[in-house]
Amino acid sequence: MGISENFKAIKSTIPKHVKLVAVSKTKPISDIELAYQSGQRIFGENKVQELQEKHPALPDDIEWHMIGHLQTNKVKFIAPFIDLIHAVDSIKLLKEINKQALKNDRTIPVLLQFHIAEEESKFGLSLDKATEMISSEEFSALENIAVYGVMGMATFTEDQNQVKTEFSKLTSIFNKLKTDYFSNSGCFKEISMGMSGDYKLAIETGSTMVRVGSLIFGNRNYDEK
Ligand SMILES: *Cc1c(COP(=O)(O)O)cnc(C)c1O
To answer: Beta-carbon neighbour count of residue 187 at 10 Å?
Structure first.
């Protein structure tokens, strides 16, 4: 099957309230155009350089999401156009995003990344770290970021029960933060979880945004998380 067929088949399994981020990392512009022609408008990339190349070459009504780990010194390159930054896990990064947003006279939407997997990872917040950060004065002073919700990745395993437990953990973190800190925020409503292998389970467990790459575009030649 081609990209258009893959896209339509997957799209039909995703309920209306769930957003589909088509993860086009490592894929050429011509592949993105095919998905675009089938109606897809949200694309996710995990490298700043690819975003810089693809954004100007494609239609203006595409929503670009940065889904990978973002280095502080590269925020400036995507700040003028990025629509959502998924993997924010430090006050240092938030402050830089805020600074660059201000420079561009805009507000940049972000998701807070949580470490929900069993696997060791240097990325992602714990609930304790997040609450400490959100309660800080430094955080309150950031007027040019908008926290749209949370993001996480489950362990890469066949064990569906484990994946489900990890997704449920992210949903409870979202609910707790919503109640305790964002009850007056109209924009704190996204739970970004679920990839090609587990997006259906993620939707059953509360996901509002799935990030699907290989099921739409085929396997990637080189795979970097
Ligand atoms: C690559 C990537 C995806 C998509 O992975 P697939 O298994 O190809 O669907 C989703 N989220 C993140 C953060 C990624 O880096």
So the answer is: 12
Ligand 1 pocket: which residues have CB below 6 Å? 23, 25, 46, 67-68, 195-197, 211-215, 225
pLDDT digits (tens, 9 = 90+) for 110-164: 999 999 998 887 789 999 999 999 999 999 999 999 999 999 999 999 999 999 9
pTM for the complete prediction? 0.96
Q: Are 213 and 22 in contact (CB under 8 A)?
A: yes
Distance from C-alpha of 81 to C-alpha of 10, rounded to nearest angstrom = 27
**Residue 125's closest CA among 153, 100, 98?**
153
Q: Quick check: 27 and 220 in contact, CB under 8 A? A: yes
Q: Hunting for tokens 């973190």 — which residue is that?
A: 173
Taking the CA of residue 214 as reference, the ligand 1 atom at the shortest distance is: 8
Q: How far is the CA of 101 from the centre of ligand 1 (A)?
A: 26
Cα 172 to Cα 6, 124, 165, distances in angstroms: 32, 16, 11
Q: Which residue's CA is the closest to the ligand 1 atom numbered 15? A: 225
DSSP secondary structure code for residue 62 in this structure? P
